[in-house]
């Protein structure tokens, strides 16, 4: 296997795992699944700022990143939401992530930034859509 192919497969696996973990965070906060929001067993109150909206970004963005559909903009939005979480929620508790509980936010922020910059890798819906001729895409869009 070539080095470029190996890198594309590794990036795809990184994208899927990162998106899956992020989507789990969103689902736990939105629906109370997997132990609920912050392990409370409860969901975040509907439309509560910023928790519910962050959870929506986590679930929708995570799913888009997993599928590799609009992966770069979705990953950029996810990265930005984690930067917001770090600087608004965690930074006031201490300077370093180790001291302020912000390791997860920092890791997600940088992980999604890598995906936004490098792209989705192999096996992404974006790659399949890019391969189709423009006429086929237009016919699919008008049929639905």
From TrEMBL:
Membrane topology (UniProt): Multi-pass membrane protein
Domain of life: Bacteria
GO CC field: plasma membrane
Keyword Transmembrane attached: yes
InterPro entries given in the database record: DoxX (IPR032808), DoxX-like_oxidoreductase (IPR051907)
Subcellular location: Cell membrane
Transmembrane segments: 47-67, 74-93, 105-125
Keywords: Cell membrane, Membrane, Transmembrane, Transmembrane helix
Pfam families: DoxX (PF07681)
PANTHER family: BLL4328 PROTEIN (PTHR33452:SF4), OXIDOREDUCTASE CATD-RELATED (PTHR33452)
Stated family: Belongs to the DoxX family.
The name this protein goes by in its record: Integral membrane protein
Species name: Catellatospora bangladeshensis
């Amino acid at each position: 296997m070539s080095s470029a192919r190996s890198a594309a497969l590794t990036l795809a696996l990184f994208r899927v795992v990162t998106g899956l973990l992020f989507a789990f965070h969103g689902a736990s906060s939105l629906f109370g699944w997997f132990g609920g929001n912050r392990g409370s067993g409860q969901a975040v109150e509907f439309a509560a700022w910023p928790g519910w909206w962050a959870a929506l970004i986590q679930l929708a963005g995570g799913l888009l990143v997993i599928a590799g559909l609009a992966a770069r903009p979705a990953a950029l939005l996810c990265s930005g939401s984690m930067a917001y979480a770090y600087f608004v929620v965690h930074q006031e508790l201490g300077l370093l992530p180790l001291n302020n509980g912000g390791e997860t936010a920092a890791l997600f922020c940088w992980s999604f930034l890598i995906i936004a910059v490098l792209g989705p890798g192999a096996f992404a819906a974006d790659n399949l859509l890019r391969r189709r001729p423009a006429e086929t895409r237009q016919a699919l869009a008008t049929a639905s």
